[in-house]
Amino acid sequence: EAGVVQSPRYKIIEKKQPVAFWCNPISGHNTLYWYLQNLGQGPELLIRYENEEAVDDSQLPKDRFSAERLKGVDSTLKIQPAELGDSAVYLCASSSRQGQGNEQFFGPGTRLTVL
Amino acid sequence: EDQVTQSPEALRLQEGESSSLNCSYTVSGLRGLFWYRQDPGKGPEFLFTLYSAGEEKEKERLKATLTKKESFLHITAPKPEDSATYLCAVGTNDYKLSFGAGTTVTVRA
Description:
A: 7-stranded mixed beta sheet, 4-stranded antiparallel beta sheet, B: mainly beta, 61% strand
C-alpha cells in the first residue's frame, strides 16, 4: 500500500513570494491533515479535512495561508506571501475513521526555506 | 488545554544499554496515546496506540506502557538503528493530535 505522498520535498523561495505544497493521502483515507513542524518541536496542526470539508482550521493563519481539498482526495496548502518565519517542515497526514484509534500516517514533508 | 511533555530532551545510549523515555500529559477526553518515530528528514512513523491505563504494547526492542498521567517507551538492548527522535501525542475526542517536542535518542555502537 502506498503511503502519503508529498511534493515538492524541498522548496527555497524569497520572502513575499507565493508557494504551494501538494499532498496525496493513503487511498481510502477520508481524513487529511496539514501540520507545521519547527526544528526541535513536534508537529502542530494547521487544518483538518473530512472529505472535502475543512472541519478544523482554527490554527491556520488565514491572512496568508489557504488550503483546498477538491474531490476529497488530493490537497494543496498555499502561502501567499511567504514570510521568513514560515521556514519549517510542512507535513501532510491521513487517517481512516475506521478503528478506535484514528491513527494518522504521515508523509515525508516539504522543507520550506524562506530567504 | 491539552499538554504533552516529553523527557529527557536527548538521550545518548551505548549499544545494549536499556533505558526509558517519559511522556506526561494532561488532556480532557483521551482517545488514545500515540508513539511515533521520526528519522532526520522524514515524516513521523507510527509505532503504537495505547487506549487505557495498564495497557502495554511491544514491537521488537520497544515497549510502550500507559498510566492515567504518563506513558513510557522502554528501549531494551538498543542498537544503533534505534537512533531517532521519538514523539508522543495524545488524541482527543475531536480527532486532534497534540504532540510533545520529542526525545532524540542516539545509540552508539
